[in-house]
Amino acid sequence: MSQQEEKKQSSLYGVSFFLVVALFVLIIAIMLLLSYRGNSRAAYPARADISEISPQTMKRLRNKYDAYGESVGNPKAAVTVREFGGYQCPACGHFEPTAERIRKRYIKTGNVRFIFFDFPLSIHSHTQAAAGAARCAARQHEFWRYHNRLYQTQSQWAQAADPTSQFVDIGAKIGLNTQKLKACMKANKTLPALKAERQAGQTMKIQATPTVMVNRTEFVGAPSYQELNKTIESALANAGEAVTPQE
Hints:
By secondary structure, the chain is α+β, with helices and mostly antiparallel strands. The protein is built from ten helices and six strands. It has a six-stranded mixed sheet, sandwiched between helices. β5 and β6 form a beta hairpin. α4 crosses α8. It is globular and about 50 Å long.
């Protein structure tokens, strides 16, 4: 083989090697992308795990802990929907439009009550402060508007090093007395209630947020609107309640 032919063959080997390496890198990149997308979807399961809560546990929840949650609706309603959530939890933020839709549909009927319990997870650095801010807003009778705004702006304040000013801004936008809001947040005045809510979650053996309950039926993860609505309708039927939901 001549020197020229050897150079030509070597060049072909070099090109082939480069193409193989490039193909390998492309395959790895595609695998990583698919893995990322799969993990992203996993944060919002298509169906929550469902189980039944024991009557004894429900009795303790009703008699001892319900008073610590923030509620809306008739206290004597046939059906109670309870949510254990955290404001920095992405899955909770994903579930919030469903929760709001349920509240708008059923609360005015008088047959459904909705209770929100704060259950901050340690992996979320600002969720405890957000819960405290929402409870301070409740002292000015604006819990639910503040609650909704926290979820709507979650992607903004969750990235801040210190979201305190953003919590105050939310209060200002819904018409709160911001001086009272700041004083309440600074003094941690709502901490006893938050601790009681956490104790309630531990009693219920909460492992993930959101955890949603319709009477004794428990969803670990975010149920769809259709699934939650069906469960509420079934619970109302079992209680002998005829209801015309309000849209």
